[in-house]
From TrEMBL:
Name of the protein this chain belongs to: Phosphoacetylglucosamine mutase
Domain Alpha-D-phosphohexomutase alpha/beta/alpha intervals: 51-98, 118-167
Biological pathway: Nucleotide-sugar biosynthesis; UDP-N-acetyl-alpha-D-glucosamine biosynthesis; N-acetyl-alpha-D-glucosamine 1-phosphate from alpha-D-glucosamine 6-phosphate (route I): step 2/2
EC code: 5.4.2.3
Function: Catalyzes the conversion of GlcNAc-6-P into GlcNAc-1-P during the synthesis of uridine diphosphate/UDP-GlcNAc, a sugar nucleotide critical to multiple glycosylation pathways including protein N- and O-glycosylation.
Source superkingdom: Eukaryota
Coiled-coil stretches noted in the UniProt entry, renumbered to this chain: 380-407
Residue numbers binding substrate: E370, A371, N372, R496, P497, S498, G499, T500, R505
Family in the record: Belongs to the phosphohexose mutase family.
GO BP of this protein: carbohydrate metabolic process; hemopoiesis; protein N-linked glycosylation; protein O-linked glycosylation; spermatogenesis; UDP-N-acetylglucosamine biosynthetic process
Amino acid sequence: MDLSAITKHSALHAKPSGLLLQYGTAGFRMKAEHLDHIMFRMGLLAVLRSKQTKSTIGVMVTASHNPEEDNGVKLVDPLGEMLAPSWEEHATYLANAEEEDMQRVLIDISEKEAVDLQQDAFVVIGRDTRPSSEKFSQSVIDGVTVLGGQVHDYGLLTTPQLHYMVCCRNTSGQYGMATIEGYYQKLSRAFVELTKQASCSGDEYRSLKIDCANGIGALKLKEMEHYFSQGLSVQLFNDGTKGKLNHLCGADFVKSHQKPPQGMEIKFNERCCSFDGDADRIVYYYCDADGHFHLIDGDKIATLISSFLKELLLEIGENLNVGVVQTAYANGSSTRYLEEVMKVPVYCTKTGVKHLHHKAQEFDIGVYFEANGHGTALFSKAVEDKINQLTRELEDKKGKAAKILRNIIDLFNQAAGDAIADMLVIEAILALKNLTIQQWDALYTDLPNRQLKVKVADRKVISTTDAERQAVTPPGLQEAINDLVKKYRLSRAFVRPSGTEDVIRVYAEADSQESADSLAHEVSLAVFDLAGGIGERPQPGF
Ligand code: 16G
Ligand code: MG
């Protein structure tokens, strides 16, 4: 390590004194103006991680669905997974080091992790379309180069595309080619193959309106469109030419407000979906004949996918274990449907993709989705080998099912939940099963629900257990929630500190919207009173 060069360059990306940040659920995220030092330091850390794992590491500059003025950064581990937990701690430690401690902290981390400093390092970088992102990638590059690492800057990418690149580079191209064309070709080839097998035709099955949240998804879909146009025609809205990133549009807006995005007119029967700002989330929706809006969230996506996979396995005659992983936000109706009707085991983990991903790896086929639309399906190596063997051996109906499964495996970005990949999987399944969006929606009826936020002085006073479904502290809060829940039918409620905002989140569901709203409100009051609420007391009405 050239320690004096590090000190010199670090001073060019000086940390505002007193600023303390934490590597959260999805890396560092906040107002862009405070993040330059974090970018430089994550460049440094990526080099250490690359040397330690002797693999390519990814750095993604994005703040996903946050407002345009925010930004963020996260590291991507060798197989395209989220950064290992012990390294999240190092990231926080390095991020908060004062300038004069930088050298010591870097040496400290290297020693703790037995990093061979002579080892080569390679880091790949991607960024979203925020105004601050380009400059920030330069700061990351500065960090990488000052520690002697090599860099490949992919420029504008969706978050899942960067995960894909990292995975390709560390598996010697087995997962795919580590180029943007490689990504487009791999997904589109599988998609077009699948739709060729679909018996239904007619334009209504093959066209989709996409709200791109004024983000990177629009740019990448424009590039990709002609690769898959044989199987699907897309109409892009909120493509970034006019509106502001994530403003009144995008998956997060549509899911949390349960209404259509601005800038997109929806006619009866039209199939529509929304991406978030870095295209790793997707939700679907449509308007019925009476003009009512219907949201199809991550839970229903998981249901469609897992039931289709189960049907294929039945056809092939393979007894593989399929599991679905959700979080506490999953609608109660979805969990019931999966368990009771579909007979699929369902597991609940803490919020955050890494928790779901980890659990899903325990199954032959693990389908995981957060209600907010983050998710994918993971196939174990054994399953993949088995399917490959069957596609070679069988020519009959079973062989056909095996081929479909082979293409589905190719289509999912298994390195990370990916709005583009998920969209193509969903479109392929709807075409193959000849399902309309209304028929898909009718699998089960969501229980009415409501999410609220409460401001408190210190959100750490609330701690939870049982995959965030029970509050352990402050004393009395869980008892209060239990009493409130008892007042309503088919009801459930929980609270948790947000990992991305300085608030407590409240979730409630019940048999009617009125009940869900009133339960959510009462729980907010309990949080405000027992967990040190600040500002105005929560008011009823939304
Ligand atoms: C992050 C997570 C997302 C989670 C959300 C919860 C990743 C890539 N993203 O965006 O999975 O749903 O945080 O936010 O893990 P909250 O803690 O503010 O409710
Ligand atoms: Mg996102």
